[in-house]
Design brief:
The chain has eight helices and five strands; from the N terminus they run αααββααβαβαβα. Residues about 1-55 have low confidence and may be disordered. It is an alpha+beta fold.
Length: about 240
């Protein structure tokens, strides 16, 4: 019951934030860090970024994030979001990590990234990922990232439903690994990529009964969030 009350409170706060169209990430980050971080961090674990076992985006730290630190992190996330939005074929959204801090979710549709049934990156995808590596990740090395691959629910020939689901899970992991490998080859530090997951048919974002929906569900998501070093620097007032 107590957890439900916390979540209800956090939802109320998020509704208020969502209605503040002129409020930047920096201001939102400060408000979250200054008092709502625990509640919103709990909610973040419920709503976004869940992988196998319910792991939320970002590693939870034991240090409280103050208002000023939240503002500093929010400013950096604003810049990272703007840089990611300038990358071709990238859909950019704001999310919240499990520390209650603003993070960035970048989605690349697999219809653009890969040929059907393949984990080989297309030429267009390589151009987009090269720009993403150079203008987002390599210029924000104090941010960590997680890469998650998904497929639609199309079955494989001569397989059972369970076998198709397993093959789709394997394909989604191969695609996430292909993105990770390409980013690493562009000079992204290996320490920056904290998780690579293949989640197969789970968590569809569109209707799998239509071709358009299937295209949206075949995707790779890259989450960018504050590293522990970044949070510590923000708390110390030294984050640039």
């Amino acid at each position: 019951m107590k957890n439900l009350k916390v979540i209800a409170l956090a939802l109320s706060v998020l509704v208020v934030f969502a209605g503040c169209g002129n409020m930047s990430n920096a201001t939102k980050g400060g408000l979250i860090g200054g008092g709502g971080g625990a509640a919103l961090g709990t909610l973040a674990g419920v709503l976004i970024g869940k992988g196998p076992g319910g792991a939320a985006i970002g590693a939870a730290i034991g240090t409280a994030v103050g208002t000023t630190a939240g503002i500093l992190i929010g400013k950096k996330m604003d810049k990272a979001k703007a840089a990611a939005a300038a990358v071709e074929n990238a859909k950019v959204e704001e999310v919240t990590d499990q520390n209650g801090l603003k993070a960035v979710k970048v989605t690349f549709e697999s219809g653009i990234l890969f040929p059907s049934g393949s984990s080989a990156l297309s030429a267009d995808a390589q151009g987009s990922l090269q720009k993403f590596a150079n203008t987002v990740l390599k210029t924000n090395t104090d941010m960590d990232c997680a890469i998650k691959g998904y497929t639609d629910n199309t079955g494989w020939k001569n397989t059972t439903a369970a076998e198709s689901q397993q093959k789709n899970q394997e394909l989604s992991l191969q695609r996430a690994q292909a993105v990770s490998t390409y980013l690493l080859n562009q000079g992204v530090p290996s320490s920056q990529i904290k998780a690579i997951e293949g989640l197969g048919e789970t968590n569809p974002v569109a209707d799998n009964s239509t071709n358009e929906g299937k295209t949206q569900n075949r995707r790779v998501e890259v989450y960018i969030y504050a590293s522990e070093n970044m949070i510590n620097a923000a708390n110390a007032g030294t984050l640039q």
